[in-house]
Design brief:
Blueprint: H1 2-15, E1 23-29, E2 40-41, H2 51-63, E3 69-75, E4 77-79, H3 83-93, E5 98-100, E6 106-107, E7 109-111, H4 112-124, E8 130-134, E9 140-141, H5 142-152, E10 159-161, H6 163-178, E11 183-184, H7 187-191, H8 201-208
Parallel strand pairs: 1-3, 2-11, 3-8, 4-7, 5-10
Antiparallel strand pairs: 6-9
C-alpha cells in the first residue's frame, strides 16, 4: 500500500509541474509474473496469481498516470554487497548455507552494476517504455545459486530448507517471496542492444569473492 500511495503522490506532483521531466522511472518487481514453473516469460506475459502479482500490477498502474514516458523497472534479485547477500553471507561463512525449496526453482537475478548502467539507458533511450525486465539473460536454479556461492566462499553446503518448512514459518508471503519459480527474460533490453557486464552468476561471484 505504501508503495502504491507514494507512487501516486509522486506522479500527481510531477504532473502539476510547469516543466515536468520527460521520463518517469518507477521501481517494480518480477513478482508481477507470479509462480510459473518451467516457463520463460518476457514483458509481454500476463500477470500471474497471488498477492505480489496483484500489488505489482496496481503499483505499475499508478506509474502510468504520469503524462510523459514511463518505464516500470521489473527488478530481479539484485546482487551486490547489500540486500540478500549481506543477510545470507554470514550463514554461508559459518558453513550454515542452505538450498531453498526443491533446488529446481528458477532465480532471475541481475548485478547491481548492470542495474546502474541500464537505469541510464532507460533514461536516455526513448524506445524503452512501459514495463522492462531488469534481469540477466541467464537465470539459475536455487541449487545452482547456493552451490556456486558456497564454492566461491570455500564452504560446504550441507543443509536444505524444504518448501513445507518455509510455508510453515513464513506462511503465504514466504511462499511467494522465497519459493517463486519463474524464468524472467530481459527481452526489451536485448531488443535495444543492451550489454550486460555480468551475464553469468559465476562472473558476479568471481569478482566479489
Amino acid at each position: 500500500k505504501s508503495r502504491i500511495e507514494s507512487t501516486r503522490f509522486l506522479v500527481e506532483t510531477l504532473n502539476t509541474l510547469t516543466k515536468p521531466p520527460h521520463v518517469f522511472l518507477s521501481a517494480s518487481a518480477m513478482g508481477f509474473y507470479g509462480n510459473r514453473p518451467e516457463e520463460k516469460v518476457d514483458e509481454h506475459a500476463s500477470r500471474g496469481h497471488g498477492f505480489l502479482a496483484h500489488v505489482t500490477k496496481d503499483w505499475e498502474k499508478e506509474a502510468h498516470h504520469f503524462k510523459g514516458r514511463v518505464v516500470c523497472l521489473r527488478f530481479g534479485l539484485i546482487l551486490g554487497w547489500g540486500g540478500l547477500l549481506k543477510k545470507v553471507l554470514p550463514l554461508y561463512k559459518w558453513g550454515l548455507g542452505a538450498c531453498i525449496g526443491t533446488g529446481k526453482e528458477k532465480i532471475s537475478w541481475i548485478a547491481v552494476d548492470d542495474v546502474a548502467y541500464h537505469l541510464l539507458q532507460a533514461i536516455y533511450d526513448k524506445s524503452l517504455s512501459h514495463e522492462v525486465n531488469f534481469v540477466s539473460p541467464y537465470s539459475v536454479t536455487s541449487r545452482e545459486f547456493s552451490t556456486l556461492l558456497a564454492k566461491h566462499l570455500h564452504r560446504p553446503l550441507f543443509f536444505k530448507l524444504p518448501a513445507w518448512l518455509i510455508k510453515i514459518i513464513f506462511q503465504e508471503m514466504g511462499k511467494e517471496l522465497l519459493l517463486a519459480d519463474v524464468d524472467v527474460h530481459p527481452q526489451k533490453l536485448l531488443n535495444v542492444g543492451a550489454v550486460f557486464a555480468y551475464l553469468h552468476l559465476d562472473d558476479v561471484f568471481s569478482l566479489m569473492f
